[in-house]
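Q&A log
Question type: sequence-to-structure
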Amino acid sequence: MQRTQIDNVLPSLSSNNKCKLYILVGNNPNADETYEKIQENSRAHPTVLFAFQESGGRKENGNIISIHFWKTSFSIGALNEDNSYRNVIENIFANTGFKPHYSKDIDAWLKSHVALIEPIAYVTHWANGNLKRVSKNREMLNLTIDAIAEGYEVVKACGYPIEPKKDEDYIKTKRRQFYWMLKIMSATPFGKLAASDHAMSAIGEMNFISDEFDKLKKKADIPTPNWDRLEQYLIKE
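Response status: OK
Response body:
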């Protein structure tokens, strides 16, 4: 689901006293708040997992055109130390094209993911969905990378580790490779499937996530000049 759709289904989830396990899949920079709402309003007090399916795509003429690498990565975790759900997940994905990755801190993972994807959404809006404009603009490519790095600093300043750690390390130690990856992605259909289709079709979600991350920025109280500059290109609802 898009993040803007989650709150609408929470009353139904909370009123269901039979289901003991829910998995909410998608962007959610405030998974902790979502979890608390369910537990506060549910007599069943179900296990609530948060997850993100690392693929992209769009619906076209009744067909789904998607992109993913080998087995689709599926990051998942609980907000507490409960690992009892793993056998259930393993059974669900046995003999499928999905590979679950268990996060020790899924809330941090989701916040880190927003720090990564939201600048890409901003620059997509700057290009009005045409990522080839981005691929030809060195300034905007570097601005996007700088904004992502600042986003990671915000997450850490708020007390959350970057999950997965390799994403931050990649930007810090392999910036040139990341630059070319972003440039190639922007110049090819890969970028449309992986980024711009969603950024342009889910403008409401992009706005919601941006507003939520602004709360983290305010809490962190550190300079984010590149993020702030790029955020100005966000298409408003």
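Response note: Strands lie at 21-25, 47-54, 56-60, 63-67, 72-78, 98-102.
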